[in-house]
TrEMBL record:
PANTHER family: XANTHINE DEHYDROGENASE. InterPro entries: Ald_Oxase/Xan_DH_a/b (IPR000674), Ald_Oxase/Xan_DH_a/b_sf (IPR036856), Ald_Oxase/xanthine_DH-like (IPR016208), AldOxase/xan_DH_MoCoBD1 (IPR008274), AldOxase/xan_DH_MoCoBD2 (IPR046867), AldOxase/xan_DH_Mopterin-bd_sf (IPR037165). Keywords: 2Fe-2S, Iron, Iron-sulfur, Metal-binding, Oxidoreductase. One of its GO terms (molecular function) is oxidoreductase activity. This is Molybdopterin-dependent oxidoreductase. Pfam families: Ald_Xan_dh_C, MoCoBD_1, MoCoBD_2. The lineage of its organism: Bacteria, Pseudomonadati, Bacteroidota, Cytophagia, Cytophagales. It comes from the Bacteria. SMART domains: Ald_Xan_dh_C. It comes from Hymenobacter busanensis. Belongs to the xanthine dehydrogenase family. Its cofactor is FAD; Mo-molybdopterin; Mo-molybdopterin cytosine dinucleotide; [2Fe-2S] cluster.
Length: 763
């Protein structure tokens, strides 16, 4: 089944926040953000802005009726700056005006007296100064200190990755209305309606029951609206609450880029020990996460980095330590993969460095160390239903790794200026929120008397096709056509206490709840049918297929079944609750069973580098992915393609640059390059691995949102291999993204400095 939103999107009919008809009397808001990254806020000069045309009101921290606090995991983030500013663009004042241009013009008239304080942008500096968001965490397996003695080879190094802008097509925004009885209703472009509700209530000093959040769909989220939609939702709500008028706040692209957090940059130190036959024996790694100025989701992201520190390899002795470092950048946040990609980049870098030094191909090391059933992850979970070997073998068989490598080598032999590189990128990604309690969801299903069905869940549609999946689940479980089912908006009044749509788990969690609710309704209807048809109650489970089958093909019997059930006063609504079974994690031991299951896959990536220009193409990505039993293969394939290209962009061209003052220099699409159509590999093969799926996955279709992003890491190592084909004496340092600029710097690195690593290897 195709994505049900597709036609509406193509015709421009799909409703986004900005398409909601604007009510008369609506005020338009714009935000004044701090011009400095750190300082004491001495005074705000609002007079000129107050007198500007159309300005109705300017709100500051003093106007907040409740608590000026939107921190989730750690209460360390003010909605509007109080006494201090902590990053450039931190919201300080909210201008409400009759039109949006008036509000934006008035913002430009605001000035602030700020006493500058020292600015930290480097996570290692923050760590050295004790500026940590939370205490460090360490995951341990075996005894690495003792294992070094056993290692034939020990490789040490550093790896760095940059951040990543989410660049959802729809910027952050919200539209709030005052409601009867002193509440607010907020249309929010958020992945986490409950988070917006909770923090809005806190800021307004009211109960969550007076705050209703409603979401139709997002024009992209990618993690950027998991936590950080809250600011804009709460600000719009504050405006509506104070003025008793509707308030609409939509960030312009420039403000969105400047004011919101991104994927976390990391800098990490690694030490990897191997046996003579290339078995990984020991791994020590220290991650320094650049959290930015407030905790946001950083501690959770940090944790997922630790969970994925070994990617899809078994290493018997591991010590992984992670620091969440407070700097004066906008608070960094969730981004597809949620720290996993950062952890995986480091182990892949360590393996690449080992391959350089040992004179072997990285995939020879990768191949020998894939996870297998019965082994254990460093966090204590047993490896079960592992498809690491299976996906590698399938990829090898379909794409002929050795032959492909030989072709690349042959090409490089005869091509002096263009060189190719091949890399293999196997992945393993854990599915579940790492915070066990978040793995729950609810669904509310109504069957109307005409046989049509309305389904409400906590799932937010953001282009990933979750609504289509929910409709499929409902239709299949009830045994009716998907045409009879509508997915309602995501609304906190209909479905409460929701987890954000995140962690690749949205379809699993909400889908299971839909399935449970529909099963219950179906049983109820069958019982009614059995009564009407004088069927035997005991035989119900056996006969229910017959009963439903009798309703086909015209489904007129469905309508009859439903309407007669109504007249017999059968309850046609159901609310179900699902909690993923068997999850636990003990943070004191850093051991447990945090994931419902894991998703595996293997990608082969080829890049061609132009050694004159430093430019490159990622020519081909051919991969085998573990979808389980996909019931929406078109949507799932789309997730793989999109995730891959997003990962490829992060690893190759998307370069976020902040200066020493904490100012974003890559603050527009002229300076921040994202993949376009030409960046998509010309060959993009997505093959479905034949596996039974997992019982914790909805209809045994495994989660598909985040895992494919990590195939993009292969592009980094393919480019690196191509550079080394041109300059075997150069060992490019591990610094993502591998921009054409860095390619050139490596290609034209001085011969002398290039000789140094070779000498140290000999010593
Ligand atoms: N969000 C979250 C996530 O709160 N916890 C997670 O484990 C997670 N994982 C991936 C993406 N978002
Ligand atoms: Mo996400 S990074 O699953 O919001």
């Amino acid at each position: 089944m195709h994505n049900l939103d597709a036609a509406g999107h193509v015709r421009g009919e799909s409703q986004y926040l900005d398409d909601i008809p604007v009510q008369r009397g609506t005020l338009h808001a714009a935000v004044y953000g701090s011009p400095l990254a750190h300082g004491k806020l001495l005074s705000l000069n609002l007079e000129a802005a107050r007198r500007a045309p159309g300005v109705v009101r300017i709100l500051t921290a003093q106007d907040i009726p409740g608590e000026n606090q939107i921190g989730g995991i750690v209460p360390d983030e003010e909605l509007l700056a109080g006494s201090h500013v902590h990053f450039q663009g931190m919201p300080v004042a909210l201008v409400l005006a009759e039109t949006e241009p008036q509000a934006r013009a008035a913002v430009k008239l605001i000035t602030a007296d700020i006493e500058p304080l020292p600015i930290i942008t480097d996570p290692r500096e923050a760590q050295a100064k004790g500026e940590l968001i939370v205490p460090p965490r360490t995951f341990r397996l075996g005894d690495p200190a003792a294992a070094w003695a056993e290692c034939a080879h020990i490789i040490e190094g550093t790896a760095e990755n940059g951040g990543q802008e989410h660049l959802y097509i729809e910027t952050q925004g919200a539209y709030a209305y005052p409601t009867d009885g002193g509440g607010v209703r907020v249309h929010s472009s958020t992945q986490g309606p409950t988070a917006v509700q909770r923090h809005t209530a806190r800021v307004l000093g009211t109960g969550m029951h007076k705050v209703e959040i409603d979401v139709t769909r997002l024009g992209g989220g990618f993690g950027g609206k998991e936590d950080q939609a809250t600011t804009w939702g709460a600000l719009a709500a504050l405006g509506a609450f104070v003025t008793k008028k509707p308030v609409k706040l939509v960030l312009g692209r420039h403000d969105d880029l400047r004011m919101t957090g991104k994927r976390h940059p990391y800098t990490s130190d690694f030490k990897l020990g191997l046996s003579a036959d290339l078995k990984l024996l020991a791994y020590e790694v220290t991650f320094y996460q650049n959290a930015g100025a407030a905790a946001d989701l950083s501690p959770a992201v940090l944790e997922r980095t630790l969970f994925h520190a070994c990617n899809t390899y078994f290493i018997p002795n591991v010590r992984a330590t992670a620091y969440s470092c407070r700097t004066h950048l906008p608070p960094n946040t969730a981004f597809r993969g949620f720290g996993g990609p950062q952890g995986m980049f480091v182990i892949e870098s360590a393996i690449a460095k080992a391959a350089d030094e040992l004179g072997v191909l990285a995939w020879e090391i990768q191949r020998r160390n894939l996870l297998q059933d019965g082994q254990v992850f460093p966090y204590g979970q047993r490896v079960e239903d592992c498809n690491a070997e299976l996906s590698w073998q399938a990829a090898d068989q379909k794409f002929e790794l050795k032959k492909w490598q030989a072709e690349v080598d042959a090409f490089n032999q005869q091509s002096p200026v263009r060189k190719r590189g091949l890399a293999v990128m196997p992945i393993c990604f854990g599915i579940s929120f790492t915070k066990t309690a978040m793995n729950q969801a609810r669904a509310l299903v109504h069957i109307y008397t005409d046989g049509s069905v309305g389904v409400s869940t906590g799932a937010v549609e953001m282009g990933q096709g979750v609504n289509t999946k929910m409709i499929q689940v409902a239709a299949r479980t009830l045994g009716i056509s998907p045409k009879r089912v509508r997915l309602e908006t995501t609304n906190t009044t209909r479905v409460a206490n929701t987890s954000p749509s995140a962690a690749s788990a949205t379809a699993d969690l909400n889908g299971k709840a839909v399935e449970m609710a529909c099963r219950e309704l179906r049983t109820r209807l069958l019982r009614h049918a059995a009564e009407d048809l004088k069927m035997n109650y005991e035989g119900l489970e056996i006969q229910d297929e017959q009963v439903l089958a009798a309703g086909k093909p015209a489904e007129t019997n469905w309508e009859k079944l439903v309407s007669t059930a109504y007249w017999k006063r059968v309850n046609l609504s159901e609310n179900a609750h699902y909690a993923t079974p068997d999850l636990w994690f003990d943070q004191t031991q850093e051991k447990g069973h945090p994931f419902a299951y894991h998703v595996y896959g293997t990608a082969l990536v080829q890049a061609t580098v132009d050694a004159m220009r430093g430019t490159y193409d990622v020519d081909a990505v051919r991969l085998v992915h573990d979808f389980g039993q996909s019931f929406t293969p078109g949507i799932d394939r789309g997730q793989i393609e999109g995730g891959l290209v997003q990962g490829l962009g992060w690893m190759t061209m998307e370069e976020l640059i902040y200066n020493q003052d904490g100012r974003l220099l890559s603050n527009a699409l002229s300076t921040y390059k994202v993949p376009d159509l030409y960046s998509v590999p010309k060959v993009l093969d997505v093959e479905f691995l034949e596996t039974p799926g997992h019982p914790n996955a909805i209809l045994r279709a495994k989660a598909v949102g985040e895992p494919p992003l990590m195939y993009g890491l292969g592009a980094y190592f393919a480019i690196r291999n191509a550079v080394r084909a041109f300059r075997p004496d150069v060992r490019p340092e591990f610094s993502a993204p591998f921009t054409p600029e860095k390619v050139l710097l490596n290609l034209y690195a001085a011969r002398e400095s290039a000789a140094a690593p070779a000498a140290s290897q000999a010593s």
